[in-house]
Amino acid sequence: MQRAAWLQGGLHALPVAGAILLAATVVSTGIAAPAPFPVIGKRAPNFLLIDQDDHYVQVSQFRGKLVLLNFIYTHCTDVCPLTTAALARVQRELVHRGWWDTDVVFLTITTDPLRDTPMVLRTYATRYKADMRGWHFLTGDPGATQAVYKQYGIAIQARSENLQDHASPTFVIDRGGVVLGAYGTNLDPDAIVDDLAKLRARG
């Protein structure tokens, strides 16, 4: 897999410990989102959604931790399963290093809230052996989720047979709540762990 390392719209990648960490990218399963994503370089917009255990979750509650935030839907047959599997590999390494939940958490937001109920998301999470101490699969009423898509620049377009195209960034949010950038598709778990290690060392 190839790490996302290309830039869009003239936005510069952010340096961390003298290295290039992330690039703002436009990625999708068939459509383009605005470039760059409007949240890059800004404080992550807060939201209130419900996770797989029916608990309310806000992005702001994870201040002091590093956050990976991405968007999927459970009936997806192409990019979403690959992204989730790659993040599961990252999770396993973070658990091994003792960083999971204490230093790094994942937030995965559905783009199909009508079908992706908490129970459906929990089944999906279990399928990928998600450690739900630090991985929250989020849904909510359509109004709440639509507001999140708009804030984060996530374009969604319905397809036939209950499928959809949607922008698929994996945002990295620092300990202060600022969105540093976004990975594209074809995530490289080793590169992500390396980036998180650099961010962690930065404090």
Description of the molecule:
With 203 residues, this protein is an alpha+beta fold. The chain has a single domain, classed as Glutaredoxin, CATH 3.40.30. Helix content is 27%, strand content 22%. The strands form 4 sheets. The chain has a 5-stranded mixed β-sheet with strand order 7-6-5-10-11. Strands 1-2 form a two-stranded antiparallel sheet. The radius of gyration is 15 Å and the shape is globular.
Radius of gyration: 15 Å
Number of strands: 11
Q: What is the level 1 CATH name?
A: Alpha Beta
In CATH, what is the homologous superfamily? Glutaredoxin
- Spans of 5+ residues with little confidence (pLDDT < 50)? 1-34
Q: Give me the strand/helix succession.
A: EEEEEHEHEHEEEEH
Q: What would you say the CATH architecture is? A: 3-Layer(aba) Sandwich
Biggest sheet character: 5 strands, mixed
- What structural class do you assign from the helix and strand content? alpha+beta
* Average pLDDT, all residues: 84
* Annotated CATH topology: Glutaredoxin
User: What is the 3D form?
Assistant: globular
Number of domain units: 1
Separate helix tally: 4
